[in-house]
Amino acid sequence: IGTVTAFSPFDARADAEALRKAMKGMGTDEETVLKILTSRNNAQRQEIASAFKTLFGRDLVDDLKSELTGKFETLMVSLMRPTYIFDAHALKHAIKGAGTNEKVLTEILASRTPEEVRNIKQVYLQEYEANLEDKITGETSGYFQRLLVVLLQANRDPDGRVDEGLVEQDAQVLFRAGELKWGTDEEKFITILGTRSVSHLRRVFDKYMTISGFQIEETIDRETSGDLEKLLLAVVKCIRSVPAYFAETLYYSMKGAGTDDDTLIRVMVSRSEIDLLDIRQEFRKNFAKSLHQMIQKDTSGDYRKALLLLCGGDDE
């Protein structure tokens, strides 16, 4: 369940007028901008942008970019990005120019459903006239690249009846490929973690623990390293629980010195209508504080106000 839902009664023109007034002339009334944009869902924001253009012949996003600055601007502009293009846009920017942002590739491809991945590939082709897989293969290498390609095929087995014999077999194969071997057979991890159904893999992880005495995450941690390790761990965590994975992602984006604002914004915006409530619950359960408290402590100004409104309540 998300924290942002359709606002009712909704009046796109009234919102467009309020936003124009907030940004017109000297100074900007940020409070109005953030209140409107965080309390409307994405479909409604698109209607507001359309009304804004109809009434004033101006582009709402361009106006936001010229009137706002810094992280607050990034957050408001992200909220305006149409849902269907959000992930494709993030991936495009992760593989553009010097240096690839592996963190973004990992987060999106590990956490999205096969259907979402197929959709991302299609939108990428339409919007950027380029093949996402080719772009990613051109910027990555090794087993990290192979697992990304497997995930991009979006051919994970659908959930169905779990065959205990196959569960046992996969658990044994993983055990032999990692703990029992001098060196690691990464390919076995990639195939099994990248193609088996979610319900099957959850049983495999339990069985793996029984056979080896280790959580599969501990083995991955010991036997692999670098980008491959991070991607394998993200896949395992998402198989176990997508909301728990994002709770952890948010936690580490704010923990310690400095904040990874790009990740904080990307997750808060992209999950706000999907499962941010579930993420909040996992956060509270796993980190002994609420997401609300952590955002409160770690951010400031209009940026903080907007994030807290997206977050919704404080799970004390």
Automatic annotation (TrEMBL):
Which InterPro entries does the protein's record reference?
Annexin, Annexin_repeat, Annexin_repeat_CS, Annexin_sf, ANX5
What's any GO biological process attached to this entry? calcium ion homeostasis
SMART domains referenced in this protein's UniProt entry, alphabetically: ANX
Q: Which is one Gene Ontology cellular component term of this protein? A: vesicle membrane
- Comment on protein domains: A pair of annexin repeats may form one binding site for calcium and phospholipid.
An MF annotation (GO) of this entry: calcium-dependent phospholipid binding
Entries under PROSITE patterns matching the protein: ANNEXIN_1, ANNEXIN_2
Protein name per Swiss-Prot or TrEMBL: Annexin
Q: Which family does it belong to?
A: Belongs to the annexin family.
Q: Which organism is it from?
A: Strix occidentalis caurina
| Pfam family of the protein (one) | Annexin
**What keywords tag this UniProt record?**
Annexin, Calcium, Calcium/phospholipid-binding, Repeat
